[in-house]
Input
Amino acid sequence: MNKFSLAVTAGLLAAAVSPVFAADEPLNVIKYRQNVMKAVGGHTGAIAAVVKGEVSFVGDVEAHARGINAMSMQLGHLFPKGTDNGAFKETRALPAIWEDMGKFDAAVKGLQAESAKMIEVAQGGDVAAIGAQLQNLGTACGACHKPFRAEAQ
Amino acid sequence: MTGPGRLFAGLAAVVCLAAGVSASGPRPAAAQASTQPAGGADGGGGDVVARGTVVFRAAGCMSCHTDSKNLGRPLAGGRPLITPFGTFYTPNITPDRDTGIGNWSVADLSRSLHEGLSPAGSHYYPAFPYTSYTGMTDQDVGDLWAFLMAQPPVIQANRPHELSLPFRFRASLGVWKGLFFSAGRFAPDPGRDAAWNRGAYLVQVMGHCGECHTPRGALGGLDGDKRLAGTAKGPDGKKVPNITPHPQDGIGKWTESDISYFLKTGIFPDGDAAGGAMVEVIEDGTSFLDDSDRSAIARYLLDLPPIAGP
Output
C-alpha cells in the first residue's frame, strides 16, 4: 500500500469511525435512529411470529438475527449528546442516557451479545430454543427501554 | 401495579411496624427455611409452596416489595413509591420475626389482603392494592402464606413513610375505605367457562391490572365506568395504556396470542420491546405463569367492552 492510499484509507476510516465530527443535525440523527430502531423491531416481530407459530419460516430467523446484531453495532454512535427528549419532543430518549453512560453502554453490549447468541441458536433451527433466546433478547431490549426511554404519549 | 392507590400502600408498612412488630425472639420464623426463592422444594409442604409460587407471581408481590434499584434483598421492602401524597416505603414481607411478617398467621395475611387491616387492626394505605386482593380465594391466600414463610428471612427494619401532613393520619383511611373499598371474594360468572373466569380472576384480583390501567377520580378511587381504559396520569404522572379491546385506542387489533406472548416476553406485536413499569410486571410476574394462565388473561381482556380513550 502506498502512502497515498494509506492516507485515503485512514481518512475514510476516520470518517466511518467518528460520525460525531460530521455534526449531523440532531433532528436528522433522531429520525435516522428511529428508523434503525424500527428495523430492529421489524426483525424482532418477524422472529416472534415464527416463535408464536403464526408462520413456519424458521429458516429466516438467522437472517433476522443478523439484522438485529448489525443494527446493535450502530447504537454506540446513534446517541450523540443533545438528542434527548428534553431538547427535542420528537424523541423518547431520556437525558438519563447521558447521565449514566456506563449503564447505557452495558445495555448496548447486552443487546449485541444476545443478538449474536440468537444467530447461533437460529442455526440450530429449533423453534423452542429460538423462543427461549428471543425472551433473553427481549430482556436485553428492556434493559435500555425501561431506564432510558420515555413512555409513549 | 403502580397506582395512585399504591401511594397509600407504603403507609401500610408503617402500620406493620407500629403494630405487628412488638415481636419476641430475634431468629427467623420459617420453620424450614428453604433458600429457594421459588418452586416447591419437597418435604411435606412442597405442593402448597409450589401453588403459592403461582399466586406470588400472579399477584406481582416481588416488584414492589423489593428495592431492586438499590440491590435490596428480595421481599425485604424499602422500595420507595413516590406519589402526590408523599413517599411510601414498602414493607419487609420476608418471614423475619422482628422486622418482617414472621409472626403472621394465615388469618393475619388474610386480613391484610382481604380487608386492608394490619394484625393490630390499623388501616393500610391503598398503595397496597387490597382493593383488588380482597377477591382472592382463601385457598390462594393460604398457599401464598406458605410460600412467603418458606422464603429466606431478611432482617431489615421498615422505613417510615414520608407523607405530607394531611395524609399522615391513618384514621382518615377509614373514610376512604368507606367510599372506595368493598370487601368481598371474587364471584365467578356461571354463564362463562372456566378459562374466562380464570382470566377475570387474574386480571381483576391477582394481577390488580386496574390499579394502574383504570383512571382514578380526585380522591383516588377507581372510575368504574372506564375500567382498564388507561389514563393519561398514572403512577409517576405517566401515561398508562388502554387495554380494553377498542380497535384504535386499545388492544382491539391484538390477537389472543399477541397478548399472551407480550405477557411472557415484553415484545409487542410490532416487534417493539416494552419499557416502563410493565417491564417489571412481566419480568417479576407474568413471565413465570403458565401459558394457559396468560391465554386466560388474553381471552378475558379481548372480551371486555371496548372503551375509547384516554
Summary: Chain B touches chain A through 23 residues (CB under 8 Å).
